[in-house]
Amino acid sequence: MKPVRSGILVFRFSAMGDVAMTAPVLAAFREQYPDLPLGVVSRNAFTPFFADIPRLSFHSLEPKGRHKGLTGIFKLFLELNATRPKAIADLHNNLRSRILGLFFFFCGVPVIRVEKAREEKKQLTRKNNKVLRPLLAMTERYASVFHKLGFPVKLSHQLPPKNPQVIPDSLAEICGDKMNTKWIGVSPFAQHPQKVYPAEKMQQVILQLAERGYQIFIFGGGPAEQIIGAEWAAGQPRIKSIIGKANLEQELALISNLDLMISMDSSGMHLASLKGIPVVSIWGATHPFTGFLGYGQSLQDVVQLDLYCRPCSVYGNKPCYRGDFACMNNLPESVVIQTVINKLNNE
Question: Name one GO biological process term (predicted).
Answer without folding.
Answer: lipopolysaccharide core region biosynthetic process
